[in-house]
Amino acid sequence: MTTSLADVASSEAALRAFLHGLPGVDRVGADQRAAMLGTRSIKTTAKAQAIDLAISMVDLTTLEGADTAGKVRAMCAKAVRPGGDAPSVAAVCVYPDLVPVAVEALKGTGIKVASVATAFPSGRTSLEVKVSDTALAVSAGADEIDMVIDRGAFLSGRYMKVYEEIVAVKAACGPAHLKVILETGELSTYDNVRRASWLAMLAGADFIKTSTGKVSPAATPPVTLIMLEAVRDFRDATGRQIGVKPAGGIRTTKDAIKNLVLVNETAGDDWLTPDWFRLGASSLLNDLLMQRQKLATGRYAGPDYFTLD
To answer: 309 an active-site residue?
Structure first.
């Protein structure tokens, strides 16, 4: 890295030179390491601890056109008391117009309210609309904003446009944390995932997030590995710690535990808390609860034992 981080965003040329000067990703190596870490066997007490940790990291999410206030209230109730003595989840994520419902339902619980903004999931609108969308969600009480980058701008090499949009949205967040969604399934290469990760962090992201959950593939293990390497290297270079949120396609306890192993072995246990690692999911929580009950009682509960999300 020959360019000073302080000067990286001084011009389009400097930003491009920095991003394209990052070490390339060995695709075969990344795939093989992620696959190898995915074979780690976590059992008994360690598995029970991992399940509870994963539950505490869940951003319980509903992002459908048919969402209603009643559905959000029910989801918030489950977020607070998922089942038995299981821990509460980290956050509930909803569309901006439903933020007031979630804020009211979660008052006093400590669970964060997250909201997608900036023309989610496409990101295709003006900067003014993105900033206004963000400001409205924050004014309604959102603790966290999940914004999506303009992939068209990124893929056509207009890195400064993406950078400046993230900076502007971060400013509109005020005290709220900003998660920047890269939509890795549309970035084509692992090198682009690394570049987009660094671009978002340089622009002020508090978290980098894999996906909207609307595009396949979403949160694959190699992509999460690359993003964890990026936040680790970014902290080494700047002293600033950034969180990671894989989202989309994480449906089973096995998927969740694989992600925890990736965190521990790649970034380190500093990231093994809900403050620095989240799992974006809707159906994952029920599987975690079923596996938790199996460990406690020796019997599986049917899926109808738990509320549908």
So the answer is: no
User: Mean pLDDT, the chain, as a whole number?
Assistant: 94
Strand partners, 91: 59, 112
What Cα–Cα distance (Å) separates residue 31 from each residue in 38, 223, 224, 226, 297?
11, 9, 11, 10, 36
- Residue 190: the pLDDT is 98
Quick count: other Cβ atoms within 10 Å of Cβ 188? 11
Q: Given the structure tokens 């400064």, which residue do they identify? A: 160
Side by side, which strands form the sheet with 144-148?
243-245, 207-209, 177-181, 144-148, 112-116, 91-94, 58-61, 279-281
Per the annotation, the verdict on 214 as an active-site residue is no
Q: What is the pTM of this model?
A: 0.94
From the list 59, 133, 143, 146, the catalytic residue is 146
User: What six digits make up the tokens of 74?
Assistant: 């029910």
Nearest alpha-carbon partner for 293 in 109, 59, 47, 41: 47
List, for residues 11-47, the tens digit of each pLDDT value: 999 999 999 999 999 999 999 999 999 999 898 899 9
67 tagged catalytic = no
Q: 206, 245, 255, 287: which one is catalytic?
A: 245
Tokens 């009480």 sit at which residue?
141
pLDDT band at 2, cuts 50/70/90?
very low
- Using the 8-state DSSP alphabet, how is residue 277 labeled? B
Cis bond before residue 121 (omega within 30° of 0): yes
Cα–Cα distance for residue pair 113/108, rounded to 1 Å: 12
Exposed/middle/buried for residue 72 (C-beta within 10 Å: 0-12, 13-18, 19+): buried
Residue 86 tokens, joined: 């299981």
Angle subtended by helix axes 190-202 and 221-238, to nearest 10: 40
Which helix or strand (DSSP H or E) is residue 169 part of?
helix 159-173
User: How far apart are alpha carbons 277 and 38 in whole angstroms?
Assistant: 18
